[in-house]
Amino acid sequence: MALNAEQLREVARITLAAPTLREAITGVRQALPGVHASAVDPYDMRGEQPALRIGDRDLFLMHSDGHCWSVTTDPLNAHGIVLTQNT
Hints:
- This protein has 87 residues and is of the alpha+beta class.
- The chain is built from two helices and five strands; from the N terminus they run H-H-E-E-E-E-E.
- The protein has one domain.
- It has helices at residues 5-17, 21-31; strands at residues 36-39, 52-54, 57-64, 69-72, 80-85.
- Helix 1 runs antiparallel to helix 2 (21-31).
């Protein structure tokens, strides 16, 4: 699966409009049912570079080999996203 520019714009739009991180994830899952979306604590993503900063939230593109997940910078290799809330 790949995330295209239109999907990333939709994720950004939903993320900016959502009052909470959980609501952003729910909105992404509803709008893009094929995209895996999760929220984690920023500490869990320490040392990783976000693909996008969306307001006070960071978006990480995630790749899966079918078993393990890893951060990718390439939307064409992304199978999902992770969002974190910056404080």
